[in-house]
Amino acid sequence: MIETPFWNDFFSLISPENQNEIIEHCMNPSLELPKEEFEWGDECLSEKVHLKLTGFTELLEPYVIQVLSEVIDEGTPYGFSVDEVWKNTYHRYYHQEQHDHQGYELSFVIFMNDYQENDAKFYFVNERTRLTAESWGDVSALMADSLPIEGKKGDIVFFPSHMLHGVSPHQSDNPRITVSGNISITQL
C-alpha cells in the first residue's frame, strides 16, 4: 500500500513473505565486496560495505512490481534493474546525514533487525515546508518536518530516489543493520 506523507512523495513499507530468505541473502558474507570508497556519505558516521548484486533482483522483484503497479499507469511497459546494494551498520553515535539518491528512480531499505528504543531511526524529510510559499504557511504548519520509519526485521521500505532521507544518531550498544539499494526503471 502506498502512503503519501508529503504532497508528491510516497513510500511503501512491505513485510515480504520471503523475508527470512531476503535477510539470509543480505547477511551472507560472501556477498560483501572488498572495501572501497563510497562516492557519498562524507558527512555521516556509519560502517558501509558494497554487496554483490547477485540474487537481489529475483528476491525483490515481486515487491518492486507491487510498488510500481500503484504508481505507473496500467499497460505502460517498463523494466527495472537493481543497480547498487550496500550494507549499513550503525554502532553507538553512528548516523547518516540527510541525502537523496539522484540518478535512480526507486530506492529501498531492508531492516535486518527489529527497531528497539534508542536505535537509529530511518526518516524522510519533508522538503515541502521549506519550499512552501508563506501564503501557504498555515497548511505547511500542519505537516510534520520529518517522518520516522521504525521498521521491523525483514521489512522493506521503497521510495522515490529523489526523496530526502537520513538516519538519526544510534543511541544503543546493539548495532542496527540495514541493507540499502537503488533501482533504475526504464520505459520499454
List the helices and strands and how they pair.
Blueprint: E1 12-14, H1 19-26, E2 47-50, H2 56-68, E3 78-90, E4 96-99, E5 106-111, E6 122-125, H3 128-131, H4 137-140, E7 146-149, E8 156-160, E9 165-167, E10 176-187
Antiparallel strand pairs: 1-8, 2-3, 3-10, 4-9, 5-8, 5-10, 6-7, 6-9
Q: Which key features would you list for this structure?
A:
single chain; 188 residues; alpha+beta; Jelly Rolls; 6-stranded antiparallel beta sheet; 4-stranded antiparallel beta sheet; 4 helices; 15% helix; globular
Overall residue-averaged pLDDT value: 89
Largest sheet: 6 strands, antiparallel
Report the order of strands and helices. Answer: EHEHEEEEHHEEEE
Strand content: 25-35%
Order of strands, main sheet, comes to 1-8-5-10-3-2
Structural class: alpha+beta
- Looking at the structure, the CATH topology is Jelly Rolls
The total domain count is 1
Count every helix, treating DSSP H or I runs of 4 or more residues as helices: 4
Overall morphology: globular
Q: Can you tell me the CATH superfamily?
A: q2cbj1_9rhob like domain
